[in-house]
Design a protein that fits this description.
The complex is a heterodimer of chains A (610) and B (350). Chain A is of the alpha/beta class and 610 residues long. Chain A folds into 4 domains: 182 residues, 3-Layer(aba) Sandwich (Pyruvate-ferredoxin Oxidoreductase, domain 3); 183 residues, Rossmann fold, CATH 3.40.50.970; 73 residues, no CATH class; 119 residues, Rossmann fold (3-Layer(aba) Sandwich). In chain A, 39% of the residues lie in helices and 19% in strands. Chain A is built from 20 helices and 21 strands. Chain A has a 7-stranded mixed β-sheet, with helices on both faces. Chain A has a 6-stranded mixed β-sheet with strand order 2-3-1-4-5-6. The longest helix of chain A has 21 residues. With 350 residues, chain B is an alpha/beta fold. Chain B has a single domain, classed as Rossmann fold. Chain B has an 8-stranded mixed β-sheet, with helices on both faces. In chain B, strands 10-12-11 form a 3-stranded antiparallel β-sheet. A two-stranded antiparallel sheet of chain B has the order 5-6. In chain B, strand 11 and strand 12 form a beta hairpin. Chain B is globular, with a radius of gyration of 21 Å. Chain B starts with 36 loop residues before the first helix and ends with a helix. The chains are: A alpha/beta (610), B alpha/beta (350). Strand 15 of chain A pairs parallel with strand 2 of chain B. The structure holds thiamine diphosphate, iron/sulfur cluster (SF4) and magnesium ion. Iron/sulfur cluster binds next to loops of chain B. Magnesium ion binds next to helix 4 and strand 5 of chain B.
């Protein structure tokens, strides 16, 4: 791979043992660059384990604002003896390899094409810190210090971060600064610095925040007025519940009584979690759950019930890789089919695809409005990469005047003015009918909720014609949904293109980078970012208007491609998959490579000839 | 197809304290088999709610799947109902109670619905002390799927198919006691004098109340060899006591029967008066209840009546410390944090 790395353009990977407190040091590293105004992305690659296995933290610095993952590690910080040789192997030719030389690496095992940066981290830490409990932690700060020198990072910014992290704890700050300086000094006295690639301050992160998608989802649910949450622990969705709880405790406790304006239940399993959500929404509270693929599988029966019984249901699916243990702590977009067609009988669902934490926040709120408006399950499809990694994104904003869209809910006064209330009567002819909340009116509006077998007045029937009428009305509702869900975002090529790229969610950053690379090479490409199902006319038009379509996604079977073809009945021949499913976030290089393979164009052909 | 009963009311028909007739608590005409125990339980629920003078629209009835779970259609037509999915009534009820703690919740389930597919949810709804009455219409078989054994069928008992049950049975009342339930009772669909006061007491109990009601399936499990038949239950019923439910304002006038008697004060001020109390049983002693259940079962008897009560166990909304207003009544002004709060949160991520 050619190395275009340089000033504000490089990748650093930290190799740690999980459970050793490296996370906060690594985050500090990324945040420092962020506070220096330089776009940065940081990704955790961690095992399904609590202590003792390798973890990696990969930071990409890019002054042009490309924050998708990039292959090729310029600087490897290897502080895990277990993965050391693997880490060395994964360092780019011409790159730098920093490791803990308390235990020196034998000469014969080294690589000639990699620069070695030896620093006795453990030894330094042991020499300068008394308390054995902190030696491990300060070892991490020492390597951050070494990096600071090598990469021209601003010491004052790091100290500022420490002050923010430990407000008022002068002793702790002092010790951390000591460790930081140890690392910085060691680098100054032992190595040439800065490295050819390093950081130069910019002002491209003004006003931005670094936040993970799960925190943003949890906060979104607080602002959207969710009062009930039920969940069952599963990586990578657990931190949605954690965030919701944290901010509820902070923002939703009645100051006078000390009582909670929320109820959070850790249920016995995902079946119960979704059952609780359905029961609460049926009874007029905004309720939601967060889970991952295995949980969605378990929830399938209930999702169908909510679809047929027309109960608003909000489900956040933080997608991960496959079942059981092992790869599940890696990212994927492999629940598209599972989510879209969830359950038995004829079902299809409204899905939302956020691609940034800001959108996680906003779309969580949108999910509640849509679920209430459409009286149906809405699945927010995020993933591990978006959910558990910090992403540079716009600050979260909320319109103070915003009113929730609670949809067609009848009050006692409404009922008093009505001749007949029919729970499933399509009065407005948009497929959406009026509902009542239990306990509303002494003599009107009560009805019996069932899955199928009911007529327009919610009376039990096994009449096939009534069933068909109902199913057709649900289709009409689906049509209505098309005009209510977020519209796709377009990235048109000014010169007009025959090639269109379709992407969604966390594929976006790399897809946009790939587009700019391809355009720079002289290729015309249009882009469309899907934000939701059902697909609107605009989505169909985009596909019809292009000769070749690439659908870029992170799963093996091209699930979004299948759903597009199935729903829009477009010609499958012209819709080509670009897939990545190794558990690592997709990269622009991966995308461009695949597109070029399918579509040799003058530039890349001549490039090859050179 | 079911249909509403004619709305005709007899001029002398009784009216309860809030002006409702008994008819106002009835439901659609049942489509269950004639003689099915479940229908008698529906009638008892109607009677109990009428006598307790609960406005019908303030009751929510939630069920799973089964003949038993169909019954909410046949009582309380003016209440909201939810026929959910098999074995999952407890979770739907949990959500409903979370949303609005002020309604009366009646959960209806079967022995298949509760003791097999729904066992996990049953156990956990007990642990949560959800404020609801959980009625199991227990016939020892799967009625709706045509008579298979359920997990409450006793070893050696056989229904219409004639094959004796091999595996040991689950006693739902015993299990609920084990799991810490604050109100546990067992009754028989054929004994409305016992059942109605128990339902009333269960509704008045501030917390989770289980009533395991033996309810013969006349079509599949009313055989000579079944321990859940009308004859068997009638012949082997023992009771802990005779319970009478006394609403808040009324004085206890029930004539005291021979044997010991006791009055239990409920959370809302109503009382249960117990007479003819069985020897060695104390309604407030969990261990004595567990013992009594085991002892009866060893003797092939069915112990009924109130089995255990602890009126002081904190219900779920106390445990979760939720506000006094139902959560579903909170509006934007109660729920949306300030702009400054969000600004501060943003600052924390810079
Ligand atoms: C997931 C699922 N599995 C199986 C069934 C089929 N099913 C319907 S009712 C029932 C058993 C009901 O038995 P019980 O709860 O004892 O009710 P009863 O009919 O005896 O009153 C079964 C297995 C179902 N509806 N859903
Ligand atoms: S099959 Fe059994 S349980 Fe079902 S309605 Fe008939 S008698 Fe009742
Ligand atoms: Mg049964």
């Amino acid at each position: 791979m050619s190395d275009r790395s340089g000033i504000n353009d490089f990748v650093v990977r930290f190799a740690n043992v999980n459970g050793t407190g490296s996370a906060s040091a690594n985050t500090m590293f990324a945040k420092t660059i962020f506070r220096m105004g330089v776009p940065v992305s940081a990704k955790n690659i961690f095992p399904s384990n609590i202590q003792g296995l390798p973890t990696w933290y990969e930071v990409r610095v890019n002054g042009e604002g490309h924050i998708g993952r990039r292959e090729g590690v310029n600087l490897m910080i290897s502080v895990n003896p277990q993965s050391m040789y693997q880490d060395l192997k994964n360092t780019m030719s011409g790159g730098y390899f920093m490791y803990d030389s308390t235990w020196p690496m034998p000469r014969e095992k080294r690589r000639e094409d990699v620069h070695f940066l030896e620093i006795p981290l453990m030894q330094l830490s042991n020499e300068h810190f008394e308390d054995p409990r902190f030696r491990q932690l300060f070892k991490n700060i020492i390597y951050v210090g070494a990096c600071a020198t090598l990469l021209n990072m601003d010491r004052e910014v790091i100290v500022g971060l420490l002050r923010d992290q430990f407000p008022g704890k002068e002793k702790v700050i002092e010790k951390n600064v000591k460790a930081l300086d140890l690392g910085m000094e060691y680098a100054k006295t032992h190595w040439e610095y800065p490295l050819p690639f390093h950081v130069t301050p910019l002002d491209m992160t003004q006003g931005k925040i670094m936040i993970d998608g799960n925190t943003a989802c949890g906060l979104g649910a607080v602002y959207a007025g969710a009062t009930v949450m039920a969940w069952y622990p599963i990586t990578p969705s657990t931190s949605v519940a954690d965030a919701f709880e944290k901010y509820c405790k902070q923002l939703r406790v009645d100051p006078e009584t000390g009582k909670n304006k929320f109820a959070i239940l850790q249920a016995e399993d995902e079946l119960a979690a979704i059952g609780i959500v359905i029961g609460a929404n049926w009874n007029g509270a905004r309720a939601f759950t967060a889970t991952s693929g295995p949980g969605v599988s378990l929830m399938n029966e209930f999702i169908g019930l909510a679809y047929f019984a027309e109960i608003p249901t909000v489900l956040i699916d933080v997608q991960r890789t496959g079942p059981s243990t092992g790869m599940p702590t890696r990212t994927q977009q492999s629940d598209v089919m599972l989510g879209f067609y969830a359950s038995h009988g004829d079902t299809k669902h409204v899905l939302l695809f956020p691609s940034t934490p800001t959108e996680c926040f906003e779309m969580t709120a949108t999910a509640f409005d849509l679920a209430d408006r459409l009286q149906t399950p809405v699945l927010l499809m995020t993933d591990l990469d978006l959910g558990m990694n910090d992403h540079m994104s716009d600050p979260l904003t909320w319109d103070a005047d915003k009113q929730y869209d609670k949809g067609k809910v009848l009050s006692a006064e409404d009922l008093d003015q009505m001749e007949t209330f029919g729970r499933y009567l399509d009065v407005d002819e948009d497929g959406i009918t009026y509902r009542t909340i239990p306990g509303t009116h002494p003599s009107k509006g009560s009805f019996f909720t069932r899955g199928t077998s009911r007529d327009e007045l919610a009376r039990y029937t096994e009449d096939g014609a009534a069933y068909v009428r109902n199913m057709d009305r649900l289709l009409k509702k689906w049509e209505t949904a098309k005009s209510l869900v977020p519209s796709p975002q377009f990235y048109p090529d000014p010169s007009g293109a025959e090639v269109g790229l379709i992407f969604f969610g966390t594929t976006t950053d790399s897809a946009l980078e790939a587009m700019s690379v391809l355009r720079n090479e002289g290729m015309s490409v249009d882009g469309m970012r899907l934000k939701a199902t059902p697909f609107s006319q605009a989505v169909l038009d985009f596909i019809l208007d292009h000769k070749t379509i690439f659908v870029i996604e992170q799963n093996r079977d091209g699930q979004m491609r299948s759903v597009l073809i199935n729903e829009l009945e477009v010609d499958p021949q012209k819709v080509i998959s670009v897939l990545n499913y190794d558990g690592f976030p997709i990269t622009a290089v991966h995308i461009t490579r695949h597109i070029r393979q399918h579509l040799p164009h003058p530039q890349s052909a001549s490039a090859k000839a050179l | 197809m079911s249909y509403k009963r004619p709305a005709f009311r007899h001029p002398d028909a009784a009216i309860n304290e809030i002006g409702f007739h008994q008819k106002d608590y009835e439901g659609a005409l049942s489509t269950l088999c004639a003689g099915c125990g479940h229908d008698s339980i529906s009638a008892a629920i109607i009677q109990a709610c009428f006598e307790l003078s609960i406005p019908p629209h303030r009751i929510a009835k939630i069920s799973g799947i089964g003949c038993s779970s169909k019954t909410p259609t046949y009582f309380l037509a003016n209440s909201h109902g939810f026929n959910s999915v098999h074995g999952r009534m407890p979770s739907v009820a949990t959500g409903a109670v979370m949303a609005n703690k002020d309604l009366t919740y009646i959960g209806v389930s079967g022995d298949g619905d509760t003791a097999s597919i729904g066992m996990g949810q049953f156990a956990h709804v007990v642990r949560r002390n959800l404020n609801m009455v959980y009625i199991v219409m227990n016939n020892g078989c799967y009625g709706l799927t045509k008579g298979q054994d359920s997990a409450t069928a006793d070893v050696g008992s056989s229904g219409k198919a004639g094959v004796p049950t091999m595996f040991s049975s689950i006693d739902l009342a015993g299990l609920a006691l084990e799991l810490g339930a604050g109100f546990v009772a067992r009754s028989f669909s054929g004994d409305k004098n016992q059942l109605i006061p128990l339902i009333k007491a269960g509704i008045s109990h501030d917390g989770f109340a289980l009533i395991d009601v033996l309810s013969p399936c006349v079509t599949f499990n009313n055989t000579k060899s079944s321990t859940k038949s009308y004859t068997y239950v009638r012949d082997h019923m023992e009771s802990t006591s005779i319970a009478d439910f006394v609403p808040v304002k009324k004085e206890i006038t029930a004539s005291v029967q021979p044997g010991e008697s006791k009055t239990i004060e409920m959370h809302d001020g109503s009382k249960i008066s117990l007479s003819s109390i069985a020897e060695g049983w104390d309604p407030k002693d969990r261990l004595s209840a567990i013992n009594a259940i085991h002892k009866a079962s060893l003797e092939g008897e069915v112990l009924t009546g109130l089995l255990y009560i602890d009126a002081a166990q904190p219900p779920v909304h106390k445990l979760l410390n939720t506000v006094d207003a139902p959560l579903n009544s909170l509006q934007e002004r109660d729920l949306v944090p300030s702009q400054e709060a969000l600004e501060e949160i943003n600052m924390g991520f810079r």
